[in-house]
Amino acid sequence: MSETRPYRHDPLGLTVSVTAALLTGQPRSLLMDTAAVAATLRPPSQIFRPEGFSKPLGSVLVLFNHYSRRGVPAWWTVFVLGGALVQIGLTEPEPRWVMTAAWRHWGVFAPASRWILRRIAKTYHSFLMPPMPPAPEDAPACAATVRQVIHFARGQRCARVCLAPEGRDSGDGSLIEPPPGAGRFIWQLCRAGLTILPAGVCEEGGAWRVRFGAPFTLTAPDDLSPDERDTRVSLRVMRAMADLLPRRLRGSFVS
User: Could you tell me the pTM of the whole model?
Assistant: First the structure.
């Protein structure tokens, strides 16, 4: 895959209608919009699912890698994964996504990114999480979002959430360690009844590729300390995603 290969946001009509919704606060379907963008890719994305996977699951936590590289920002991962979720039938009810509340790499324009991302979250009914790793002053907001997502998971008959545990770019698309607390967050969502559906998203052989793994639930001894459980859960889910990616993108999670 060429490091300079461009991707274009088509069709133009979708861009116009999404922009209007962001300005007016009109709600839209993130899955339908991402699927529309993914459908413009040439060659089309390659979607792989585990053997025997034929029906949409119930309450699901979709865990995916935060893939990006130079010239291809992480939102392309959302476009491609959203299109793949539509293809496997994970649409009703539609998952809610946990997304960053700011782009720190915007430097002095980071406050503007907060306004933009708030509009995106409102339009697509997403959860806003402070950028990772969280700054000390962001700890209360981070905890509030965690409680909000857990409350949602516990309160829905069929709750679906999409989350990238790393929460930030690695620079070269490879996996990196999730921030402290990510494992505990995932553990609480599983305790609320969500089954993990791991997904690996990357560019491979000239096309985008999404590979889903077999759904699984988490188990851990009751006598683990919170920090031990955090580490164990993080390692378990990162290895599950690493198994779905080419070896070059597995980072330190090569099994």
Answer: 0.92
Number of H helices, E strands in the chain: 7, 7
**CA 44 to CA 26: how far, in whole Å?**
30
DSSP string of 137-188, one letter each residue: GGHHHHHHHHHHHHHHHHH-SS-EEEE-TT-S--SSS---PPPTTHHHHHHH
Residue at token pair 């698309």: 173
Which tens digit of pLDDT belongs to each residue from 150-200?
999 999 999 999 999 999 888 899 999 999 999 999 999 999 999 999 999
Q: Is 216 helix (H, G, I), strand (E, B) or coil?
A: strand
Establish whether the linkage from the previous residue to 93 is cis, with ω within 30° of 0: yes
> What pLDDT does residue 95 have?
96
Entry field: residues in the chain: 255
Distance of CA 116 to the CA centre of its chain: 18
Cross-strand pairs, 48: 211
Query: CA-based angle 33:185:129, to the nearest 5?
Result: 50
The H or E element spanning position 113 is: helix 110-124
- Give SS3 for 33: helix
- The DSSP symbol for 243 reads T
The separation between the first and the last C-alpha atoms of the chain, rounded to the nearest angstrom, is 25
